[in-house]
Write a structure and sequence with these properties.
This protein has 270 residues and is an alpha+beta fold. It is built from 5 helices and 11 strands. The chain has helices at residues 77-82, 120-133, 186-198, 211-224, 244-269, and strands at residues 6-12, 15-23, 47-49, 54-56, 63-68, 71-75, 90-98, 107-115, 135-143, 146-155, 158-164. The strands form 3 sheets. Strands 1-2-8-11-10-9-7 form a 7-stranded mixed barrel. A hairpin with a 2-residue loop joins strand 9 (135-143) and strand 10 (146-155). The longest helix is centred in the last third of the chain and has 26 residues, at 244-269. The protein is extended and about 65 Å long. The protein starts with 5 loop residues before the first strand and ends with a helix.
Length: 270
Protein backbone atom coordinates (compact mmCIF):
# COMPACT_ATOMS: atom_id res chain seq x y z
CA UNK A 1 0.00 0.00 0.00
CA UNK A 2 1.41 3.46 -0.87
CA UNK A 3 2.31 5.80 1.94
CA UNK A 4 -0.23 8.42 2.97
CA UNK A 5 0.43 12.07 2.21
CA UNK A 6 -1.70 13.53 5.02
CA UNK A 7 -3.06 12.28 8.32
CA UNK A 8 -5.73 14.10 10.31
CA UNK A 9 -9.49 14.35 10.74
CA UNK A 10 -12.59 15.42 8.87
CA UNK A 11 -14.60 17.67 11.18
CA UNK A 12 -18.36 17.37 10.60
CA UNK A 13 -20.19 19.44 13.21
CA UNK A 14 -19.21 17.84 16.53
CA UNK A 15 -18.12 14.63 14.77
CA UNK A 16 -14.43 14.02 14.11
CA UNK A 17 -13.44 11.35 11.58
CA UNK A 18 -9.76 10.34 11.62
CA UNK A 19 -8.52 9.65 8.09
CA UNK A 20 -5.45 9.28 5.93
CA UNK A 21 -5.09 10.68 2.41
CA UNK A 22 -3.51 8.92 -0.55
CA UNK A 23 -2.77 10.37 -3.97
CA UNK A 24 -5.58 9.17 -6.27
CA UNK A 25 -3.87 9.74 -9.61
CA UNK A 26 -0.31 10.40 -10.62
CA UNK A 27 1.22 11.59 -13.88
CA UNK A 28 3.21 8.78 -15.49
CA UNK A 29 5.81 8.99 -18.24
CA UNK A 30 9.02 7.43 -19.52
CA UNK A 31 11.99 8.90 -17.66
CA UNK A 32 15.23 9.73 -19.45
CA UNK A 33 18.41 10.38 -17.47
CA UNK A 34 21.25 12.66 -18.46
CA UNK A 35 24.32 10.59 -19.35
CA UNK A 36 27.83 11.38 -20.52
CA UNK A 37 27.63 10.77 -24.27
CA UNK A 38 31.21 9.47 -24.61
CA UNK A 39 31.01 6.75 -21.92
CA UNK A 40 27.28 6.34 -21.20
CA UNK A 41 27.66 7.02 -17.47
CA UNK A 42 24.87 8.88 -15.69
CA UNK A 43 26.00 12.32 -14.54
CA UNK A 44 25.21 13.81 -11.12
CA UNK A 45 24.17 17.35 -10.29
CA UNK A 46 25.90 19.00 -7.36
CA UNK A 47 24.92 21.85 -5.03
CA UNK A 48 27.46 24.61 -5.50
CA UNK A 49 27.91 27.74 -3.38
CA UNK A 50 29.38 30.54 -5.52
CA UNK A 51 30.29 32.58 -2.41
CA UNK A 52 32.44 29.86 -0.81
CA UNK A 53 33.33 28.45 -4.24
CA UNK A 54 32.75 24.85 -3.23
CA UNK A 55 30.25 22.00 -3.43
CA UNK A 56 28.02 21.83 -0.33
CA UNK A 57 26.23 18.79 1.16
CA UNK A 58 22.50 18.48 1.83
CA UNK A 59 22.89 18.92 5.59
CA UNK A 60 24.31 22.41 4.95
CA UNK A 61 21.16 23.56 3.13
CA UNK A 62 18.60 25.82 4.83
CA UNK A 63 15.27 27.31 3.75
CA UNK A 64 15.53 30.92 2.66
CA UNK A 65 13.02 33.48 1.41
CA UNK A 66 14.44 36.21 -0.84
CA UNK A 67 13.23 39.61 0.40
CA UNK A 68 15.45 41.52 -2.02
CA UNK A 69 18.07 40.63 -4.60
CA UNK A 70 20.63 38.36 -2.92
CA UNK A 71 19.20 38.86 0.60
CA UNK A 72 17.41 35.95 2.28
CA UNK A 73 15.53 35.40 5.52
CA UNK A 74 16.30 31.92 6.88
CA UNK A 75 13.35 29.92 8.22
CA UNK A 76 13.64 26.65 10.16
CA UNK A 77 11.19 23.74 9.64
CA UNK A 78 10.21 23.87 13.33
CA UNK A 79 9.21 27.54 12.93
CA UNK A 80 6.93 26.65 10.01
CA UNK A 81 5.22 23.98 12.13
CA UNK A 82 4.48 26.54 14.87
CA UNK A 83 2.57 28.83 12.47
CA UNK A 84 0.63 25.99 10.82
CA UNK A 85 -3.19 26.66 10.90
CA UNK A 86 -5.74 24.18 12.36
CA UNK A 87 -6.35 22.83 8.84
CA UNK A 88 -2.95 21.16 8.97
CA UNK A 89 -4.53 18.42 11.11
CA UNK A 90 -8.31 19.05 10.91
CA UNK A 91 -10.31 19.28 7.70
CA UNK A 92 -13.42 21.18 8.82
CA UNK A 93 -16.41 21.05 6.48
CA UNK A 94 -17.41 24.68 5.89
CA UNK A 95 -20.42 24.17 3.63
CA UNK A 96 -22.16 21.80 1.23
CA UNK A 97 -22.63 22.53 -2.46
CA UNK A 98 -24.05 20.96 -5.59
CA UNK A 99 -21.14 19.40 -7.46
CA UNK A 100 -22.36 20.82 -10.77
CA UNK A 101 -21.95 24.33 -9.33
CA UNK A 102 -18.16 23.88 -9.15
CA UNK A 103 -16.43 24.38 -12.50
CA UNK A 104 -13.79 21.64 -13.17
CA UNK A 105 -11.21 24.34 -14.00
CA UNK A 106 -10.79 24.81 -10.22
CA UNK A 107 -9.83 21.13 -9.65
CA UNK A 108 -6.15 20.63 -8.85
CA UNK A 109 -5.03 17.29 -7.32
CA UNK A 110 -7.17 14.26 -6.40
CA UNK A 111 -6.86 12.18 -3.22
CA UNK A 112 -8.56 9.11 -1.77
CA UNK A 113 -9.50 9.32 1.91
CA UNK A 114 -9.33 6.16 4.03
CA UNK A 115 -10.86 6.18 7.54
CA UNK A 116 -8.97 4.95 10.57
CA UNK A 117 -10.70 2.16 12.52
CA UNK A 118 -12.32 4.43 15.18
CA UNK A 119 -13.84 6.66 12.49
CA UNK A 120 -15.29 4.06 10.09
CA UNK A 121 -18.90 4.36 11.32
CA UNK A 122 -18.89 8.18 11.18
CA UNK A 123 -17.17 8.02 7.77
CA UNK A 124 -19.94 5.72 6.50
CA UNK A 125 -22.58 8.13 7.83
CA UNK A 126 -21.02 11.13 6.06
CA UNK A 127 -20.64 9.14 2.85
CA UNK A 128 -24.28 7.99 2.96
CA UNK A 129 -25.47 11.52 3.72
CA UNK A 130 -23.62 12.95 0.76
CA UNK A 131 -24.69 10.15 -1.59
CA UNK A 132 -28.38 10.51 -0.74
CA UNK A 133 -28.35 14.30 -0.94
CA UNK A 134 -26.06 14.38 -3.98
CA UNK A 135 -24.06 17.11 -2.30
CA UNK A 136 -20.32 17.75 -2.17
CA UNK A 137 -18.55 19.40 0.77
CA UNK A 138 -16.18 22.36 0.83
CA UNK A 139 -13.38 22.38 3.40
CA UNK A 140 -9.78 23.52 3.86
CA UNK A 141 -6.58 21.57 4.26
CA UNK A 142 -2.94 22.53 4.80
CA UNK A 143 -0.42 20.42 2.85
CA UNK A 144 3.08 21.13 1.60
CA UNK A 145 3.15 24.57 3.28
CA UNK A 146 -0.04 25.68 1.50
CA UNK A 147 -3.59 25.99 2.81
CA UNK A 148 -5.88 24.80 0.05
CA UNK A 149 -9.63 24.92 -0.37
CA UNK A 150 -10.95 21.49 -1.32
CA UNK A 151 -14.07 19.71 -2.45
CA UNK A 152 -15.03 16.36 -0.92
CA UNK A 153 -17.36 14.06 -2.88
CA UNK A 154 -18.59 10.45 -2.90
CA UNK A 155 -16.77 8.22 -5.39
CA UNK A 156 -16.92 4.41 -5.62
CA UNK A 157 -18.07 3.81 -2.04
CA UNK A 158 -15.58 6.22 -0.56
CA UNK A 159 -14.90 9.92 -0.16
CA UNK A 160 -12.54 11.47 -2.69
CA UNK A 161 -11.27 15.02 -2.36
CA UNK A 162 -9.87 17.45 -4.87
CA UNK A 163 -7.81 20.44 -3.85
CA UNK A 164 -9.03 23.60 -5.57
CA UNK A 165 -7.22 26.46 -7.22
CA UNK A 166 -8.04 29.87 -5.78
CA UNK A 167 -9.68 32.34 -8.20
CA UNK A 168 -6.49 34.41 -8.47
CA UNK A 169 -4.64 31.27 -9.64
CA UNK A 170 -6.90 30.90 -12.68
CA UNK A 171 -5.05 32.69 -15.45
CA UNK A 172 -6.40 35.34 -17.76
CA UNK A 173 -5.62 34.86 -21.46
CA UNK A 174 -6.10 37.74 -23.85
CA UNK A 175 -8.77 37.15 -26.52
CA UNK A 176 -10.01 33.93 -24.84
CA UNK A 177 -13.82 33.84 -24.94
CA UNK A 178 -14.06 36.73 -27.39
CA UNK A 179 -15.07 34.58 -30.39
CA UNK A 180 -18.25 35.92 -32.01
CA UNK A 181 -21.00 33.38 -32.73
CA UNK A 182 -23.36 35.81 -34.45
CA UNK A 183 -22.20 35.04 -38.01
CA UNK A 184 -22.77 31.27 -37.93
CA UNK A 185 -25.44 29.90 -40.26
CA UNK A 186 -28.22 27.63 -38.98
CA UNK A 187 -27.21 24.93 -41.47
CA UNK A 188 -23.60 25.05 -40.21
CA UNK A 189 -24.76 24.66 -36.61
CA UNK A 190 -27.03 21.77 -37.60
CA UNK A 191 -24.21 19.95 -39.45
CA UNK A 192 -21.88 20.52 -36.49
CA UNK A 193 -24.43 18.98 -34.13
CA UNK A 194 -24.91 16.02 -36.50
CA UNK A 195 -21.17 15.38 -36.57
CA UNK A 196 -21.00 15.55 -32.75
CA UNK A 197 -23.97 13.15 -32.41
CA UNK A 198 -22.25 10.65 -34.73
CA UNK A 199 -19.26 10.63 -32.37
CA UNK A 200 -21.34 10.43 -29.18
CA UNK A 201 -20.40 7.39 -27.06
CA UNK A 202 -20.33 6.49 -23.34
CA UNK A 203 -17.10 7.54 -21.62
CA UNK A 204 -14.83 4.51 -21.24
CA UNK A 205 -11.47 5.71 -19.84
CA UNK A 206 -9.85 2.28 -20.36
CA UNK A 207 -10.14 2.82 -24.13
CA UNK A 208 -7.63 5.66 -24.09
CA UNK A 209 -3.88 5.25 -23.87
CA UNK A 210 -0.72 7.21 -24.54
CA UNK A 211 0.35 6.33 -28.09
CA UNK A 212 3.41 8.55 -27.91
CA UNK A 213 4.73 6.68 -24.85
CA UNK A 214 4.15 3.38 -26.65
CA UNK A 215 6.13 4.61 -29.66
CA UNK A 216 8.97 5.79 -27.41
CA UNK A 217 9.06 2.31 -25.81
CA UNK A 218 9.22 0.71 -29.27
CA UNK A 219 12.08 3.05 -30.20
CA UNK A 220 14.00 2.17 -27.01
CA UNK A 221 13.46 -1.59 -27.49
CA UNK A 222 14.58 -1.38 -31.14
CA UNK A 223 17.73 0.56 -30.29
CA UNK A 224 18.51 -1.87 -27.45
CA UNK A 225 18.45 -4.70 -30.00
CA UNK A 226 20.59 -2.73 -32.43
CA UNK A 227 17.70 -2.30 -34.84
CA UNK A 228 16.27 0.74 -36.54
CA UNK A 229 13.31 2.45 -34.94
CA UNK A 230 9.80 1.42 -36.04
CA UNK A 231 8.32 3.07 -39.12
CA UNK A 232 5.33 5.14 -38.20
CA UNK A 233 2.63 6.82 -40.21
CA UNK A 234 2.94 10.56 -40.49
CA UNK A 235 0.04 12.63 -39.24
CA UNK A 236 -1.90 14.13 -42.12
CA UNK A 237 -1.62 17.88 -42.47
CA UNK A 238 -4.91 19.73 -42.44
CA UNK A 239 -5.20 23.00 -44.31
CA UNK A 240 -7.11 25.88 -42.72
CA UNK A 241 -10.85 25.65 -43.40
CA UNK A 242 -12.03 28.13 -46.02
CA UNK A 243 -15.55 26.84 -46.67
CA UNK A 244 -16.97 25.69 -43.31
CA UNK A 245 -20.12 24.17 -44.82
CA UNK A 246 -18.20 22.03 -47.33
CA UNK A 247 -15.76 20.87 -44.66
CA UNK A 248 -18.61 19.79 -42.35
CA UNK A 249 -20.38 17.88 -45.16
CA UNK A 250 -17.15 16.14 -46.14
CA UNK A 251 -16.44 15.24 -42.49
CA UNK A 252 -19.92 13.69 -42.16
CA UNK A 253 -19.50 11.75 -45.42
CA UNK A 254 -16.11 10.37 -44.30
CA UNK A 255 -17.58 9.40 -40.94
CA UNK A 256 -20.50 7.58 -42.60
CA UNK A 257 -18.25 5.71 -45.05
CA UNK A 258 -15.90 4.70 -42.22
CA UNK A 259 -18.86 3.37 -40.23
CA UNK A 260 -20.18 1.46 -43.25
CA UNK A 261 -16.75 -0.09 -43.77
CA UNK A 262 -16.69 -1.38 -40.20
CA UNK A 263 -20.16 -2.90 -40.58
CA UNK A 264 -19.07 -4.60 -43.82
CA UNK A 265 -16.03 -6.12 -42.12
CA UNK A 266 -18.18 -7.43 -39.29
CA UNK A 267 -20.61 -9.05 -41.75
CA UNK A 268 -17.78 -10.70 -43.70
CA UNK A 269 -16.23 -11.97 -40.45
CA UNK A 270 -19.57 -13.44 -39.43
Amino acid sequence: MPSSVWKGSISFGLISIPIRLFVAARYSHIVFHEVHRSCGTRVHQQLYCPHDQRVVSRDEIALGYEIEKGKFVLVEPQELKKVAPPSSSTMEILQFVKLDDVDPIYFETSYFSVPEEPGKRAYALLLKTMESSRYAAIAKITMHQRERALILRPYRQGLTLHTLYYPDEIREVKDYGSTSLTNLKKEEIKLGQQFAENLLKPFRPEQFHDEYQERVKQLIESKDKGEKGPKLEKARKLAPVVDLMSALKKSLAEKHSAGAGKVGKLKRTA
